[in-house]
Amino acid sequence: MTEQEKTMRNVYALGFVSFFTDISSEMVFSILPAFILSLPGSSPALLGVIEGAGEALSYGMRAVSGVFSDKFRKRKIIVLAGYGLSNIVKPFFAVAQTGFDAFLIRVGDRVGKGIRTAPRDALISDSVPQERQGAAFGLHRTLDQTGAIAGPLMASAAMLYLGFTARDIFWLSFMPGSIALVILVFFVKEQMGAEKEFRLLQGVGSLLQGEYPRLLAVVAIFSLGAFNFSFILLSAREAGIQDALLPVLYAGMNLAHVAVAIPIGVLGDRYGKEKALLVGYVAFLATAGLMYAAPATAAIAVLTAAVFGLYDGVVNTATRALIPKFSGSSLKGTAYGLYYLAVGASVLVANVVVGYLWQNYGRGAAAQYSLVFSLVAVVGLVLLVRSQPDG
Cβ(211)–Cβ(331) under 8 Å? Predict the structure, then answer.
């Protein structure tokens, strides 16, 4: 085996860990909003609380777990703990009887994701030389999203052709999740290094004196209105799409995400990452606009889901690529930590408010709220682009 093959072996292994984990997770998430709303006492407002709290904890844990993995240089055990927690708790949706049960399980899963994400990315980075990292992360992302497409399609097929219920799908999700854990334990190798001094968000003072706070402010404002995929599925359900077909719609969202990620990265490198991020913000603005003004039909629901998938792919790619430009190479860890904390707090507010407005005033009022914040963020990002030397 060549040295290059050895360095990529960890990347392939971690890629297949994410592939099987995403099959497991997306089987669950593609039917979860409809399932939660079927539980006694549930409502769109509760759905917003569940999704907001879960996402907020996930983002917060990413900052903390990344720091600890840097301190102890033991990434694999933290990654294993995160994947293990998620795989253990997800099947318990099958025995959930109330919205509160679903809340506890969803939070447990998102905490697991938050624990594993930063150390996993660091382990990928540790496994390959600098000149191979673009290819390494691209390969990992491709395998990850392939699982995110396969999982919902498997769930829909099981419901349509095998007569599975949502609770059956939750139990079934344990199988691919367990395969992921086996691959992680036996095929992923730790990359050892010297311990570092433990300093939480080291250098934050100097970072906040530069241009980075302007970018962070724009991102936080946008995130205050950025509801997650659950409300796209809720909108589709209200438009008449049956529950067994919602996973197909969700797979389409993930497919749009995959399709746009690499092209927007290339365009961002060529024309400016701020402009690429602006494309994503405009796509979300269009998503909210469709939910506000367009009729609630199945065709509009499909179009809205596709545009949301494009937004998700663009923003997830462009924002992470843009942060090092504004933070400087020596403070990337701190910058990403602040980013995760700010976005986590903002998406909690966004999903709770959108859920409350949806329940009490309807889809249009919830979409109008998101339109306001995304429009303000678009204006702020345009001003930021114009202030840059290449803008």
Answer: no
Nearest CA among 264, 244, 67, 277 for reference residue 164: 244
Identical fold for domains 1-186 and 205-391, yes or no, is yes
DSSP string of 115-163, one letter each residue: HHHHHHHHHHHHHS-GGGHHHHHHHHHHHHHHHHHHHHHHHHHHHHHS-
- CATH T-level fold of 1-186: Growth Hormone; Chain: A; (1.20.1250)
**pTM for this entry:** 0.87
Domain boundaries 205-391, CATH class: mainly alpha
Cα 20 from Cα 26, distance rounded (Å): 10
| Domain locations in the chain as residue ranges | 1-186, 205-391
pLDDT tens for residues 341-362? 889 999 999 999 999 999 999 9
First to last CA, the chain: 47
Distance CA 303, CA 82 (A): 34
Among candidates 294, 163, 304, 290, which has minimal Cα distance to 233?
Answer: 304
